[in-house]
């Protein structure tokens, strides 16, 4: 039933019924945020990515032809928008490097402050463990566990081969297990 409602909303938006788009936003906004956040790292940037991605989705929804699942098409747009934002952030960071050198002799103090924080709940603990993963590893974990995407859907979203997704996911789970088991003191 949910897939039928989604398909109907997509068709309505494609036919010019803009208010029908609100259902799509409500349905996918949270997971889109969780896809963007590991890539761009900052909460505000992830919110901006999600907003930009939904604008793109609305503008180009007429190009969605139903060959793939709508959610895969949508997440691919979110993924690519986040990659673009991360690239722009890196470029800005390089431009600002000289300015930041004036204020900080080294970043050791900032890293130390982060490591000294004590978190009170499991969600924060796991969040810190996820921060130790590379962006592509965090994306895989987010899509597979939070987004409940299949390997085939992840491959479609990321444009990686399914075999690469399986291997990377297996290695990421092993890496995360080691981080959680051996690094509890470092994370808290």
TrEMBL record:
Origin superkingdom: Bacteria
Pfam families membership: Sigma70_r2 (PF04542), Sigma70_r4_2 (PF08281)
Protein name: RNA polymerase sigma factor
Keywords of this entry: DNA-binding, Sigma factor, Transcription, Transcription regulation
GO MF, any single term: DNA binding
UniProt record similarity statement: Belongs to the sigma-70 factor family. ECF subfamily.
Domain RNA polymerase sigma-70 region: 24-85
Keyword DNA repair attached: no
GO biological process terms on file: DNA-templated transcription initiation
Source organism of the structure: Marivirga sericea
SUPFAM superfamilies given in the database record: Sigma2 domain of RNA polymerase sigma factors (SSF88946), Sigma3 and sigma4 domains of RNA polymerase sigma factors (SSF88659)
Stretches assigned to the RNA polymerase sigma factor 70 region 4 type domain: 124-176
Keyword Transcription regulation: yes
